[in-house]
Amino acid sequence: MSEALILSETRGRVGLITLNRPKALNALNNDLMDQLGAALLAFEATDEIGAIVITGSEKAFAAGADIGAMKDWSFMDVYKNEYITRNWETIKRVRKPVIAAVAGYALGGGCELAMMCDFIIAADTAKFGQPEIKLGVIPGAGGTQRLPRAVGKAKAMDLCLTGRMMDAAEAERSGLVSRVVAADKMLDEAIEAATIIAGMSLPSAIMAKESINRAYESGLAEGILFERRNFHALFGTDDQKEGMAAFVEKRKPVFRHQ
Ligand code: CAA
Fold first, then answer.
1. What is the pLDDT of residue 1?
2. Residue 132 is a catalytic residue
3. In the record, which residues are listed under signal peptide (predicted)?
4. Using a 6 Å cutoff on CB, does residue 131 contact ligand 1?
5. CATH topology of domain 201-249
6. To test ligand 1's pocket by mutation, which of 5, 19, 25, 164 has the most ligand atoms within 8 angstroms of CB?
7. Which CATH architecture has domain 6-198?
8. Hey, which end of the chain has fewer CB within 10 Å, N or C?
9. Residue whose CA lies nearest to ligand 1 atom number 2
């Protein structure tokens, strides 16, 4: 059996995935990414799971793609086999909300992995960066595309061209992370946020996620139309009837996720 490079467990309706290569600061190799992809798709297929949290260790969410593994690869190796980027976009196939819970380093592919999640909750120890330029390459898993969308062109250029790291406070100021929490509370906070989300109607959560993502991929009029159609569609769910009836009856809704 291959080594367990990720740990997968459930906390109520939350699926918790922990990157588990601590000695290499969770450097992302193909095996780890394959295992991560499989764990994500397993939670996606489980009705009892409503949201997912991906986390790393105290020292590193992930310090990037595995430099030792890639150092001798040729263009043809990476082009034909999609080494490094193979399986990376699996996370985008997941329709349930995914939170990145980041402590320590989130560098290179680690920062890109966090940015592929729906939002990032950071410990005050978190450090983000795209240092690939120092290795003679550039970000290869979306860093030059997702970072400017998150923090704007100026800071994205600064980070990708100098390779410097930004701390949690700067990351929050610039809009990369949604919240910064004391390191010892960070995972609890992320699981609590995921638990709240998992308690909502799953169709609503999926459509909210799809609609916000559409804001990055279309013009305003197209995005508004997409949102409106999703809003209309939710009137076909049992959960809309339950959510609104519960409000009127001054009780908590019991969503059945349909
Ligand atoms: N790949 C492979 N191994 C890595 C790694 C990586 N990205 N990052 C850290 N490690 C390993 C180190 O080699 C070291 O292993 P050994 O104990 O066997 O020597 C171990 O993790 C601990 O690392 P350090 O001793 O370097 O720890 P440190 O505290 O002194 O420094 C660090 C921490 C600043 C994060 C430093 O490890 C570092 O700069 N890592 C590389 C960061 C990087 O360049 N990431 C981008 C990778 S390229 C990429 O991600 C491409 C892409 O876009 C897809």
1. 53
2. yes
3. none
4. yes
5. Lyase 2-enoyl-coa Hydratase; Chain  A, domain 2 (1.10.12)
6. 25
7. Alpha-Beta Complex (3.90)
8. N
9. 66
pLDDT tens, position by position, 108-164 = 999 999 999 999 999 999 999 999 999 999 999 999 999 999 999 999 999 999 999
219 in catalytic set:
no
64 CB within 6 A, ligand 1: yes
Q: For the chain, what are the domain ranges? A: 6-198, 201-249
